[in-house]
Design goal:
By secondary structure, the protein is mostly helical. It has a domain of 82 residues: Cytochrome c-like domain (Cytochrome Bc1 Complex, Chain D, domain 2, Orthogonal Bundle), CATH 1.10.760. The chain contains 6 helices and no strands. α4 crosses α6 and α5 crosses α6. The longest helix is centred in the first third of the chain and has 32 residues. The protein is globular, with a radius of gyration of 42 Å. Bound molecules: heme C. Heme C binds next to α5.
């Protein structure tokens, strides 16, 4: 009986050991789970990778800019401004269509910036330039100096159209 009792005790000890081992293995299973949060942190690192997409907003900005450029490609803002100035000032004497002669002034399509700078600002012509008219009836419009590049861009854009 004693041996069986010892055996029983031994079995109980083994069983306990087995339980402890199991418990340990459970803990061992728990421990790997702790690194999982680390893996989650890796997911946070993935969040950092999600930060990598931060350039994506930048790309979206670029894509936002691209359509804007596409829109301005069809209508150059400089040309648009030049057309606006031409339509509000020049058509008083020149034709609404720069390719046509106006009631008073000649056609202006293709007018160079240099010609605009002399004619519009001082009612003069560049050296060696042959004026379309012999008169000097146009009034100088020196306040338009900042708009001359736009006017030149517009008059160039409609040249030959
Ligand atoms: C008050 C009327 C009047 C206005 C406003 C006017 N022009 Fe003129 N422009 C003329 C007349 C007239 C001529 C012909 C030359 C002369 O008599 O001065 C002329 C000639 C020109 C010429 C010379 C063309 C050439 O090749 O010989 C240019 C360039 C010109 N105008 C540009 C402009 C621009 C750009 C505007 C608007 C910012 C403008 N003009 C506004 C009356 C005007």
């Amino acid at each position: 009986m004693r041996r069986s009792a010892l055996t029983t005790t031994a079995v109980a000890i083994l069983a306990t050991a087995a339980l402890l081992t199991t418990a340990c293995s459970d803990r061992a299973n728990v421990l790997p789970e702790k690194p999982r949060p680390i893996t989650t942190e890796g997911g946070a690192a993935g969040g950092a990778q999600a930060v990598m997409p931060l350039p994506k907003p930048a790309e979206s900005e670029v894509s936002t800019t691209a359509p804007a450029e596409a829109e301005t490609a069809s209508v150059d803002p400089l040309v648009a401004k030049g057309k606006s100035v031409y339509g509000s000032v020049c058509i008083a004497c020149h034709n609404m269509d720069p390719n046509q002669d106006g009631a008073i002034g000649p056609g202006l399509a293709g007018t160079t910036l240099e010609l605009l700078q002399t004619k519009v600002l001082k009612n003069e012509y560049p050296a060696g330039y042959t004026p379309k008219r012999d008169t000097l009836n146009m009034v100088p419009l020196p306040h338009l100096e900042p708009d001359l590049p736009a006017l030149a861009a517009y008059l160039d854009s409609v040249s030959g159209t």
